[in-house]
Amino acid sequence: AQKITQTQPGMFVQEKEAVTLDCTYDTSDQSYGLFWYKQPSSGEMIFLIYQGSYDEQNATEGRYSLNFQKARKSANLVISASQLGDSAMYFCAMRDPYGGSQGNLIFGKGTKLSVKP
Amino acid sequence: NAGVTQTPKFQVLKTGQSMTLQCAQDMNHEYMSWYRQDPGMGLRLIHYSVGAGITDQGEVPNGYNVSRSTTEDFPLRLLSAAPSQTSVYFCASSYGLGTPSYEQYFGPGTRLTVT
């Protein structure tokens, strides 16, 4: 069964420094998609970045990049130059290839990031 | 576009009461789903729909019903509320089924408390 593991319940980072949030996944499928979402204290879910299993290059979106290591089944989120507004919960998710015509997402338990001034 | 809208934002129910959480999207998305978020548990899928008239169960469907009569709307019904259903509920939608990189758009959430 597909599974997402986020081993860091909480992390601290100094403002302007880079931080890596860990995500490992378990799947036997060759085709899959990985997502990162941000959830600030206001509660909404904000899409950050996507990586496809066949993408040869790591995905990047502004200050966010995804360190995709397929052999190790890891999809870590790297936030460069942290800002106070980055303080939030971060969720890693994987598309379920067998669920809902590949619409369903399987989420990890999240990492709470706190940025210190 | 309003995106994905959910009503109400907050709700308090007594055990045994029933209610419907509303979800609507104006993006003509085929796929819609309901998740619940509990502390320390991440988001878990309750029910989903791949188009009007088609619904299916997710990971935690017990105690909930759904129907999809239109592309736009996907209500979630709590049949007889229990304290274990105290949670934050998110509706989500996406398009391009079969397209690898489509993202799910989430509504703002409904915070439900059952006493």
Structural notes for this entry:
The complex is a heterodimer of chains A (117) and B (115). Chain A is an all-beta fold. Chain A has strands at 3-5, 10-14, 19-21, 24-26, 33-39, 46-52, 60-61, 64-69, 74-79, 88-95, 105-107, 111-116. In chain A, strands 2, 5, 6, 10, 11 and 12 form a six-stranded mixed β-sheet that branches. In chain A, a hairpin with a 4-residue loop joins strand 8 (64-69) and strand 9. The radius of gyration of chain A is 14 Å and the shape is globular. In chain B, 0% of the residues lie in helices and 50% in strands. In chain B, strand 5 and strand 6 form a beta hairpin. The model of chain B has no long low-confidence stretch (mean pLDDT 92).
Describe this protein with a few key phrases:
heterodimer; A: 117 residues; mainly beta; four-stranded antiparallel beta sheet; B: 115 residues; seven-stranded mixed beta sheet
Order of helices and strands of chain B: EEEEEEEEEEE
Helix content of chain B: under 10%
**Helix-strand topology string of chain A:** EEEEEEEEEEEE
C-alpha termini separation of chain B: 36 Å
| Spans of at least 5 consecutive residues with low confidence of chain A | none
The residue-averaged pLDDT of chain B reads 92
Q: TL;DR?
A:
The complex is a heterodimer of chains A (117) and B (115). Chain A has 117 residues and is an all-beta fold.
Secondary structure topology:
The complex is a heterodimer of chains A (117) and B (115).
Chain A (H helix, E strand, L loop, with lengths): L2 E3 L4 E5 L4 E3 L2 E3 L6 E7 L6 E7 L7 E2 L2 E6 L4 E6 L8 E8 L9 E3 L3 E6 L1
Parallel strand pairs in A: 2-12
Antiparallel strand pairs in A: 1-4, 3-9, 5-6, 5-10, 7-8, 8-9, 10-11, 10-12
Chain B lengths: L3 E4 L2 E4 L5 E7 L5 E8 L3 E10 L2 E4 L6 E3 L9 E3 L8 E8 L10 E2 L3 E5 L1
Parallel strand pairs in B: 2-11
Antiparallel strand pairs in B: 1-3, 3-8, 4-5, 4-9, 5-6, 7-8, 9-10, 9-11
